[in-house]
């Protein structure tokens, strides 16, 4: 990301991201983990002191997701509809689907909206999780876990129709579920939550609830709606192949790939071989 054209593109992406999300450059800098001066220099064409690694870091965060080619899929439209329903009715939803079904793509597309917060759960400890959530909410705060959860609840309760989305929710351990239980109870009249994970996420909760694991039944009951993503149909596969330059005569060879991730890999391999 060293060319003038690329830097201009990043500058425009910063401004567009702030506009869509309804946040300031200072808030964006906190989310990315760079200084506010860095973003200010990027947006004011003061580029001489900014190295390539910094440009790449910012671009990775603000670049538009490449989701326009799959906006017509049933799964993406359903996920977006669920998100809006959750906002309106302050629901906690469970979105499940096998690997490659498009959960993360859908959540990242939804996350481009104002007051929408996407967190990828990667086995963080509770304090790490709530510190990251705080940065997304626009503040930098470390304290006791109790205080960090309280600060997050206070921030979510003053926003207009906020939506918190947690990806890889199937990895949430029982301790994290109990902390999210508290977060849900303290924000349920103002904040929607969407939990996305593999089908075993729901299955594990059901099994633990049957075994009377402490707190699990109560948490499971708070998930108002579950939805499982469906396999791609042939018309969707035709559309995605067409958008990626696959000749119509060869589209049928891709019908076996019912998951978006598998289809994307097959298209990439085809285009790589035939370039």
TrEMBL record:
InterPro entries: AAA+_ATPase, AAA_22, Cro/C1-type_HTH, Lambda_DNA-bd_dom_sf, P-loop_NTPase. SMART domains: AAA (SM00382). Residues 89-221 form the AAA+ ATPase domain. GO terms for molecular function: ATP hydrolysis activity; DNA binding. This is DNA transposition AAA+ family ATPase. It comes from Sphingobacterium siyangense. The lineage of its organism: Bacteria, Pseudomonadati, Bacteroidota, Sphingobacteriia, Sphingobacteriales.
């Amino acid at each position: 990301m060293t060319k003038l054209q690329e830097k201009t593109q990043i500058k425009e992406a910063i401004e567009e991201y702030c506009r869509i999300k309804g946040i300031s450059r200072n808030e964006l800098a906190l989310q990315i983990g760079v200084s506010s001066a860095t973003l200010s220099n990027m947006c004011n064409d003061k580029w001489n002191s900014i190295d390539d690694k910094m440009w790449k870091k910012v671009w990775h965060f603000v670049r538009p997701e490449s989701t326009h080619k799959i906006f017509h899929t049933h799964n993406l439209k359903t996920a977006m509809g669920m998100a809006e329903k959750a906002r309106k009715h302050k629901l906690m939803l469970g979105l499940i689907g096998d690997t490659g079904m498009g959960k993360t793509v859908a959540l990242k597309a939804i996350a481009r909206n104002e007051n929408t917060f996407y967190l990828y759960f990667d086995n963080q400890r509770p304090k790490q999780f709530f510190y990251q959530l705080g940065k997304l909410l626009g503040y930098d705060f470390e304290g006791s876990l109790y205080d960090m959860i309280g600060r997050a609840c206070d921030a979510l309760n003053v926003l207009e129709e906020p939506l918190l989305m947690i990806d890889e929710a199937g990895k949430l351990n029982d301790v994290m579920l109990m902390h999210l239980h508290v977060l849900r109870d303290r924000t349920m009249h103002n904040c929607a939550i969407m939990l996305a994970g593999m089908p075993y996420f729901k299955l594990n909760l059901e099994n633990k609830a049957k075994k009377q694991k402490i707190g699990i039944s109560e948490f499971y009951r708070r998930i108002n709606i579950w939805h499982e993503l469906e396999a791609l149909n042939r018309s969707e596969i035709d559309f995605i192949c067409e958008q990626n330059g696959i000749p119509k005569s060869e589209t049928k060879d891709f019908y076996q790939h019912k998951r978006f991730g598998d289809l994307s890999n097959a298209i990439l391999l085809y285009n790589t071989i035939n370039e």
